[in-house]
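Fold sample X.
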Amino acid sequence: MHPVTAPSFEDGAVLTDAAGRISAIGRNAEVPAPRAVRALHFPDAELTPGLVNCHTHLELTHLGGGAQHAEPEFVQWIRRIRELKETTSAEAFYEAAVAGIRDCWTRGVTCIAETGSTGAVMRALHDLGGRGIVYQEVFGPDPAAGPVSMFQLKTAVGWLRTLETAQLRLGASPHAPYTVSPSLYQAVAEFARQENLPIAVHVAESREETALIQNAEGPFADALRARGISIEPRHASPVAYLMGLGVLQRGALCIHCVQVSPADVELLREVGATVAHCPRSNSAHRHGRMPLELFRKAGVPLGIGTDSVVSVGDLDLWAEAEAAGLAGEDALRALTIEGARALSWESEIGSLEMGKAADLAVFSLAAPRRPSPPPAAQLTVVSGRIVHQISAT
């Protein structure tokens, strides 16, 4: 048994109540076993909190394969993914979302933080009874198109909000500095504050992004000018740029954060932002390595994400932890309670504690302590409900 926020111990048990919460936890002999309660025994396994995937694009699951859509340059890769999305039907996005959620469950993941533009993952999580935060993406690098982008966002939020539950939240994601104009960033940030929507944003991911914001140079700058969009150097890092626009408010989830300085990390700490680290995606696109220790020393909440299967090929969070240089209990903390903190959900999930939601995962013996454990969990439970199971006695 690995409670995560308390020492691990042998022969552990968890009792969940009808509301899907942990009502008792401890050694098996000490935990009540009411007659009406179904008992599952896993004698050669380890019980952990459900894993938290802090950044996904599950609506793109059907495009999986990692290198399948690889392009030599990041700008061309993004353009290719946009083209593939434009030829995908709403039904295909929904089926991809369902497949992605079920894949996460087979790996012991009980909470996802999705960014997407179609609403498919919000619908699928609602229909399947899953847990997550879905950030509705907003695009619009041309300031003149800002009102249309805001109308689309408000329309999407209006109908997606009807799907919210205690375990399913909606947020907003102005995509990235190369796809969102300054005025649109400000409009989305203000709308998010008014509507109490958490924000997620891709920021400081690539050298190309830094060149665009700092000096109005590089392939992103060239692509925008080719579309007739005027840009100017901001003489600031992407993090400082978004801070100045009021986007990085408390609890904002900053995705990637590879190209950051100590000053950027301090800005994120001061405002109370959090970070989603996607090491394998960063490596696949040759963006470099995030300075993980800078964030840890600063105390910035940081979780791990897989990004999309189009970038890395699968949704293996253990492989992400290994790529980040984490192993054993350190990896388990990063994939559970630290991920929950990055999503501002640590009071509800991320550890095995009385009163918390019964989000649980069972892995084969010693799996959480191996550098590369098998990806399949024996059992995955979300709010006390079994969503995946392959064996039990």
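Fold sample Y, listed below.
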Amino acid sequence: MPNMTLRTPVVWSDACLLHDPKGEVWVGVPIEGTEIAARAEVIRAAMEAAGAPVTTATPHDDTVLDAVHDRGLTRWLSTSLADWERDGFPTNPGQDRVVPYVFPTQAMLGGMPLRSPVAVHGRAGQYGYDTMTLVGPGTWQAARGAVDAALTAVDLVASGDHAVAYALCRPPGHHVTVDGYGGSCYLNNAAVAAQALRGKGHERVAVIDIDAHHGNGTQMIFYGRSDVFYGSVHVDPAAGWFPHYVGHADETGRDGGVGANHNVPLAEGTADDRWLEGVASLAEDVRRHGATALVVSLGVDAAINDPESPLQITDDGYRAAGEQLAALGLPTVAVQEGGYHLPSLGGLVVATITGLETRERRHGQ
């Protein structure tokens, strides 16, 4: 394919580099984390090398954030580290990141009402639903910066100046529910973008999630709503993959949102052809839904070399997925989700954005 100069603006917040989880606790064992600041840096470098202009994220108030997340969650994320340090956990037992150890599941509560514990280490499990997603210095600032990047991308598209805008969000967000965070995600950037597009006058919006893992948080936020369609193509959680409990094909929405949710779970080892069939089916859903704006949860961890999934998608596959979504002809906000193989990460994002620009290039914009 001939070299092209990308026109899509990359929305960037320096705050996104501040988050340093230092690692994860997986099945009780501290391990090295993969959601590191270098992810954002290599993507930005690749996009700039491809000619994409970089735009600095502008601060936004919490109006849209409050529309998709409970205030208790945002308050916890912004204050919990100070409480953790005040109670001495960095010294005893020597954990300088906020990590939960007890969770108020229904198996524990047995139908009793949920109460918020006094102890900070008890409250951690009220909002954090896994032990992999640690809160440390800079976590809140980075997550909030990612939200500002998503909202700035919405502004660029809503103004009519750009058909596509790309928010280089870090940390990612699609695993965050109304009041719970996990999966290396803290605030749901894609849900914020979709809600912001609703506020810009789009009566129906679609979120298409091409990350290797199901976006359980985005699904949960919009599951009872008909105005926001959510569709995801991902590795089958029934085969043992995160988020394990959610992301199955029979989850189609509830109440007024019945029919506005479509999951396409795929077998391990799935390559381009079958994956692209899934993307195409979701694109057709968007047409039927009547959406007038699109959010793409742009995870590239389904790629062949990525350590976080068993799918086998190539650069050409990502470019083709972008082209399929571009054919919808909708104003589009792409929001970065997963992708963890640093040597290939930037090229995969460039390939997807190149595909998303197809319609813009054909019309000479």
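Sample Y note: The chain has a mean pLDDT of 96.
Also: The longest strand covers residues 228-235.
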